Amino acid sequence: MLEAAPLLRQFFPGGAASTLSVFSFHRIPERDVNPVSMEFELAEFENILDVLEHHFRVLPLDEALQGLAKGRLPDRAVALTFDDGYVDWRRGVVPALHQRGMHATFFIACGQLSGQLLWYDRFRALVRAGVSSDLLQRVFDQTVTEDVWSLPEHDRPFVLERALKYASRERRDAVLAELEQVAGKGVVPDESLTDADIRTFHSMGFGIGAHTFTHPILASCPDEEAWHEIADSREYLEGVVGGRVTGFAYPNGKPHQDFTANHVDMVRRAGYEYAVSTARGVATAQTSRFAVPRFGPWSSRRFPLLRHMVMNRFERAAQEGEFGEPVSRGLQLSGAATPSHPAVSTPADALSVSVVIPVFNCWPLLGEAIDSVFAQSVPVAEVIVINDGSSDGDYQHFARKYPGVRVIDKPNEGVSASRNLGIREARGDIIAFLDADDVWLPGKLAAQLRLFQENPDVGVVFGRFEKWFADAAGAYRPWQEFGAVPADADMDPERSGWLYGKLAMGLLVGMNTAAVRRSLLLEAGGFDESRQIGEDYELWLRLSRITRMQCIRDVVALYRMRAGSAMHGLREDNELAQLLATARERWGLDAPNCSGLTESAYRRRMAQVYFVHGYDHFWRGSAAVAHQAFKNALGFQPEHVRARVYAVLSKLAPAVTVARTVGGAR
User: Fold this and answer.
1) What DSSP line would sit under 300-345, residue for residue?
2) Do the Cβ atoms of 165 and 217 come closer than 8 Å?
3) Are strands 515-517 and 430-433 parallel, antiparallel or unpaired?
């Protein structure tokens, strides 16, 4: 089968021309027994998730809208949303999403949380109970104008529900009350979600939005009633989740029919940052942020679903001027209700930065590192150099040369002890780390402080780094020639958020790129000083359990490649495998925001870690170490063909001789 990604990128590009496809779902029952609904059953829904996982990038809706606003959305971007509030979500949807590490936003019709059954759930319960056609016809005669009774009996509930949908609240309540009185105890409504369910979804990192209190058609409501439906639901949900609710979903959601510009203005005045409709199409930077289009897929099968998505791509969404400003202007989602480490009390624009530089025998290179700090466009409160028992120079020289640099001399205890001492000594709100032989690019700190300002619940901001090689003469290209971090540098949504699962699959955070809230480092206990290697990886895994992280898309630091670097040694023990095994034993695979990983993903990761360890030792002649590593890899993934082949080769003496010969020739 041909790979579909290149073709899909043409239809769903990223960057300045990016598009966002927003899916809309409601109930997802394990088995659909409701004659009025046309929802996917759970198995069908999971098929849709599998297709999306293979071909698209499922992002949190708020982060996707931010990326869209900045022109930095990746290609094939998709967000998932659910409306109303059903126990099916707790029983099937959330576990299915969690298993795949996918995010979704739930728009809650919150009257049901306080015990009020929504009108359409009351009607569907009546239909499910088998209310007679004669009774329906008698009660509905004053409400239905079309000749619904000539339709086949199984089609009538759809038309009757539509009639109730657009009736006045008084008429709808009267019809339902009369039907329920006659039907009696035979009517069993669906179980409703509770406040506790919403708090659980929120604590897992899912997005929570508002969908009015009682799900009326806003265009059918008096203005005062519509205002309370919109504003009161936000206030209620913020009390439930303990944070801001920034998104709103219009009931039924058809522009001009179910809501108007007047209701868009109410949504804006109520404090929401964006709203979603049910208009077809994809969102672009010019789409009205208070009329973001959504669509419900027609099929759960792969090719019909992909065809539907492409067709939807060419539907026209509401643009600037129809329902207010576009996504590219005015979107401020920094305070959205997501689980977070408690926000620091210091005003974001007054955040101070302490730079911690541990050093051991790196006197000739430290000056460049410090120069790169003072080349930043924002000032730092202090630079703390921790001299870890070096013997190659007078490190107090740097304190005398650079105002604002403090050098602390201490016995050699390792890099973790040095960094922890720097954290304890620091006075800044933010700790930024830099190794003595590496450098930052100009603009790094400004970009990080801006993201801390925009996201007070984010505890770590990092970026990408570039390897810095010497030329044939041993000279390094001047770091000033690598350019600067753009002033509008923004986060990479694929490397941002609750990152435990992604970190477990690979180290994303470069030490020299990271800036962390000092209060968070103190709470977490700093670096594990017992570790000789992987101390930074272990810290990022630990922090990913209690805070969101954000990654800047751009290169922000240069990592100097030199023979003496500590990471170039090959050890007999597989510290990385031990670290991951310890993480699993301590925390398991689950994590906030469904950011954990599946058992199969964990086993693949461990198999690859052991295979790489064995491969490196094999080509350096350590046959016994390599053989054991390959056996360990096969224990996690028996179908790992290369591990099986190398396990045999590492056991054969001729192969070991060849390996030593080739390894010596390299």
Assistant:
1) SSHHHHHHHHHHHHTSPPPBTTTSSSBTTSS---TTBS---SPPPS
2) yes
3) antiparallel
Helices 623-636 and 641-649 cross at an angle (nearest 10°) of: 150
- For tokens 């603009």, what's the residue? 443
CA dist., res. 291 & res. 312, Å (int): 16
The kind and range of the H/E element at 359 are strand 353-359
CA-atom Rg of the chain in angstroms = 29
Q: pLDDT per residue over 283-311, tens digit each?
A: 998 888 999 999 888 888 988 899 889 88
Q: What is the DSSP string of 607-660?
A: HHHHHHHHHHHHTTT-HHHHHHHHHHHHHH-TT-HHHHHHHHHTTSHHHHHHHH
Please spell the DSSP secondary structure of 556-594, one letter per residue: EEEEE--TT-GGG---SS-HHHHHHHHHHHHH-S--GGG
d(CA 239, CA 262): 26
Residue 589 CB coordination number (10 Å): 15
Q: For residue 36, what pLDDT band results from cuts at 50, 70 and 90? A: very low
Mean pLDDT to the nearest integer, 254-262: 90
CA distance linking residue 450 with residue 430, whole number of Å: 12
Inter-residue long-range contacts of 255-262, CB under 8 Å, 24+ positions, other chains counted: 255/279, 255/291, 255/318, 255/322, 255/323, 257/219, 258/217, 258/218, 258/219, 259/218, 259/219, 260/218, 260/219, 261/322, 261/323, 261/324, 262/223
Instruction: Band the pLDDT of 334: cuts 50, 70, 90.
Output: very low
Instruction: Give 59-118 as a DSSP string.
Output: --HHHHHHHHHHT-PPTTEEEEEEEE--HHIIIIIHHHHHHHT---EEEE-GGGGGTPPP
* Percent helix, strand and coil across the chain, each to the nearest 5: 45, 15, 40
List the Cα angle 651/656/657 in 5-degree steps. 145
Q: How far apart are CA 546 and CA 376, in angstroms?
A: 29
Q: Give whole-number Cα distances, 524 to 51, 205, 343, 463, 547, in Å.
A: 38, 20, 15, 21, 11
Q: What are the φ and ψ backbone dihedral angles of 295, each rounded to 5 degrees? A: -145, 150
Check: CB of residue 97 under 8 Å from CB of residue 594.
yes
pTM of this structure = 0.50
pLDDT score at 330 = 55
Q: What is the DSSP letter of 52?
A: H
The burial of 597, by beta-carbon neighbours within 10 Å (0-12 exposed, 13-18 middle, 19 or more buried), is given as buried
Q: Are strands 77-84 and 105-108 parallel, antiparallel or unpaired?
A: parallel
Q: What are phi and psi of 221, to 5 degrees?
A: -100, 150
Helices (H) and strands (E) in the chain, counts: 25, 15
Alpha carbon distance 460, 449 (integer Å): 11
Q: What is the DSSP letter of 433?
A: E
